[in-house]
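// run 5 | inverse folding | seed 20
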């Protein structure tokens, strides 16, 4: 039963990925001129956009702002792997500064194939508003 369900979903995968790419393209178009916000780079046609991750020094403040505006975001990897208990043997704080910097600046914006262009535009408008308030 579960396999039949998954096989049915698998048939939609290509169209769902195509939709995510269109939504990602819209995010990029709307947010590309914001100083202090880094967007995903690369080729749209090669990315599935399971997540749409941005970076900013104001990550926590932006996340709170978006939350207050009804927008759920995510921080999927809050710790560098060497700072977890399991992999503490791999290093200490400061040993991997690029990784640690990413952990304090990355934020996943809403992204799934059921979002609408209107919803993406709403999220983008709130991000633009946020950066206008801090400049």
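// decoded
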């Amino acid at each position: 039963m579960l396999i039949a369900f998954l096989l049915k979903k698998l048939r939609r995968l290509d169209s769902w990925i195509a939709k995510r790419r269109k939504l990602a393209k819209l995010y990029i178009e709307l947010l590309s001129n914001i100083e202090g916000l880094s967007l995903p780079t690369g080729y749209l046609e090669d990315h599935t956009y399971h997540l749409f991750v941005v970076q900013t020094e104001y990550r926590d403040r932006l996340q709170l702002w978006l939350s207050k505006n009804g927008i759920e975001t995510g921080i999927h990897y809050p710790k560098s792997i060497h700072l977890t208990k399991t992999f503490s043997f791999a290093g200490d704080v400061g040993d991997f500064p690029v990784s640690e910097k990413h952990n304090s600046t990355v934020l996943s914006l809403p992204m799934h194939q059921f979002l609408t262009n209107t919803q993406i535009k709403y999220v983008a408008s709130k991000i633009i508003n946020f950066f206008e308030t801090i400049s």
